[in-house]
Amino acid sequence: MTALIVCHFVLAACARPLVRALGSRAFVVLALPPAAATAWAATRWNTAASGGSVTWSWQWMPAYDVTVDLRLDALAELMVLLAAGIGTLVLLYCASYFTDRTPQLAGFAGNLLAFAGAMLALVLADDLISLYVFWELTTVFSYLLIGYDSERKHSRRSALQALTVTTLGGLAMFVGFLIIGRSAGTYRISAILADPPAASLAVSVAVVLILCGALSKSAIWPFSLWLPNAMAAPTPVSAYLHAAAMVKAGVYLVARLAPAFADVPVWRPVVIVLGAATMLLGGWRALRLNDLKLVLAYGTVSQLGFLTLLAGVGNRDTALAAAVMILSHALFKAPLFLVTGIVDHAAGTRDLRRLSGVGRALPYVCAVAVLAATSMAALPPLLGFAAKEAAFEALLQGDTADRWALGVTVAGSALTVAYTVRFVWGAFARKPGVEDTPVHRVGAAFLAPPAVLAICGLVLGPDVGRVDRLLSAYADTFPPSAHPYHLSLWHGFGTALLLSAVALAGGAVLFAGRATVTRLSRRIAWPTADSVFGHLLLGLERLSLQLTGFVQRGSLSVYLATTLLVVLVGQLTVLGVDQPWRGAVVPRAWDVPLQGAVAVLTCTAALLCLTVSRRMKAVVLAGLTGYGAALLFVVQGGPDLALTQFCVETVSMIVFVLVLRRMPVRFQESVSTRRRALRIPVALAAAATLGVVVWVAAAARTAPPAGAAMVEEVSHHGLKDVVATILVDLRAWDTMGESAVLAAAAIGVTSLIYLHRRTEGESLREEVRGRTAWSLAGPEMTGLPHGDEGAPERGWLAAGSTLAPEHRSIVFEVVARLLFHPVLVLSVYLLFCAENMPGGGFVGGLVAGLALITRYLAGGRFELAEAAPLQPGLFTGLGLFISTGVALLGLSEGTVLHAWTHHGRLPLIGEYHLGTPILFDFGVYLLVLGVVLDIVRALGAKIDRQIERAAFEKAAATSARTPPGAEPGTGGTPG
Question: Global pTM?
Fold first, then answer.
């Protein structure tokens, strides 16, 4: 099972090279995984039909009892055959539907196959968490497939609408899963079905939430708005996702959980009422539409309501009827969608008002459509007739609610007959006053997939008993009935047959009076759900704009004050109510007097930040507070923390200085004495409260500290540096997450500056001869050497020629050049010595970044480009790749981030050892280096270019105003 699922995703990842090499014929290759899944499921037919199951389980995290479970039983067997079998035929259909020149074909092909894999995993999942993961994967891939033609606004809007509705329902369903898992004591579906939790308020709430997810996925009213709009997707997507796969996921979930929760009081009212309403509303709407796909779309909505009603009633016979109706619906609705695609492909339109005589021009296509439509209208001897008979008979034997549901289904069936006949008539009949529609020839390969499905519906009608054993195995999971129903094409004359005749007659009458029905339908039509959804979104957008305008006034100090006040009030409330300081150990003022002295100086620098008006002073004082914290680490005996803090503060200070070049010298916001008198107490109160919270939290510890155990564990592995080992081994998950956050933050910051391109490009060499930000003096200065005239005899920097002499410091250049390589070596040393001495990948990356920053400060952006010719994204991405790869490598030993060490011996060097913590730390080193380099290039080099551009524009404007013959810098006075 696992191999089949993985093959779908692996081959989907290879879709681009396959499409590039084979064109549209690549779909034939991509059809192999679902074809293999179909064959595999066929070999398990007898096992599932006998009431057995095929299971697979993987202990992902044994210590936490986290497993991935798959299970194939009777219901899963049916769904696998539909999802994989129809998926195979749809992929083969795509080979004829698309051409080699179709844009974005590779992405579409990969997404379609990946969706098939996610759907296969969804119906096989035997635990709620795995089911939810694959559920959301189908949502994501359906979003990509619906929005395939992303250049069309309607496609983008439809995709976003489907994503919004189904995702919100999925989130509600996930909460329900958590409640059910908590109540049942397990998340394994088979265990929950065998021993469901007792009915309670929590279980009832969970059932409602789960039904929200199932009903939104299957487009049940009031969530039905997204399915008709999803017809913006190509026809193969409509045939697969919206007839045989994705929309069936909600019905599948209802059918899967009904044996355990159909007796919960809220289950039957929700499922029966909403299912019946959806059947009527969808069928009625289909009678007045003219687009063939929309007729089928609203017909699908109607049929999904019928399926949901049957699956949720909760007895053995209706479950059997639901299962055979799921099979029948897939075998007639998918070919009808595929035939619609053929008609659109051959005639160039889907408007039934413009189509005429297509049946004569395409007789085989018409025959396939009529065959599938006959099954949808429930005419014998098609499978649809046997399924409808089973549904009527099951509801006849039910209680009062089932009898009411039966009346609705008969009315809905009449609507089904009416829009089915209207579809066939509109697509293929010759209409008076309409010229025959010109069509082109349709190949056999194009028609074969829908023909196979329609023929299956024809064959399984008389031979429906062949599937009775499999479907009854699912139905038998419900309490047994007194007289179990068994599938057969003919049960003799009875009430069910009479109701079928009534539905056929009613449908014929509705079609005969189609003009009157259409006028009446449009006259009494309510506002469409789509327009309601649009107005809701518009109202939400307006509300958010008004709320944003009210809350965000553009004042950073107001934002900070609001945040601090909320924290202050919340913490003081908790402290006042719980009074956690009682019994807490009174904190000592200091361990040594030096701590107190450093703390006083740090607090003084922090308080002085409140009084300054110049930005540079504020930056320096804020940096002093960071250096003060680093000194406290030194005094306390934490050299690792101190080294990291020193490096972080140094880089932060430099970044601040680089940013300040583009900002006013003083703070722009004027602060009155009264406002300052309010801000200072808020800041001091927040700081004092935070200090108290930290003291209370530390004093509340009841368990012994973990430090001694960690020291012992580290020494057991022959190491000394506890901090570094914690970061890259014992708690490497945290470091991995923090690294990803750091990379994302850096990318976000730099993306705000690099709006167009992130690379310096080849223009660097050409710009070297021009003026740069480092060669720009404020006014033109006379009496000073320019260019190479006053340059030192030896160039210490690679880009020294770009610097104006008045901006150069020969001492700084020599120091930068001499220290650059030793500092890089030091960074590597800090990386590799982290096991036994202060250091690590984070500190090493910062030190390497400081080396590059020094080159930039000495020689500008050209010097930085010479020192680091590779792009920062390469370092960041490679670092994440190495860290993630090391983490996943541990799966070979059964768990992520499993550590191992290799010992060896090299000539001249001697014995050595190499462990995964070192490799993981190396990834952190590269990531931090890439982040620092990216920030320096964005806030340094990019801002330099902005300064140069502004200077060039100013110089050009000055030249334009200078009278002819005047010397620059002389105000136009003749020499």
Answer: 0.70
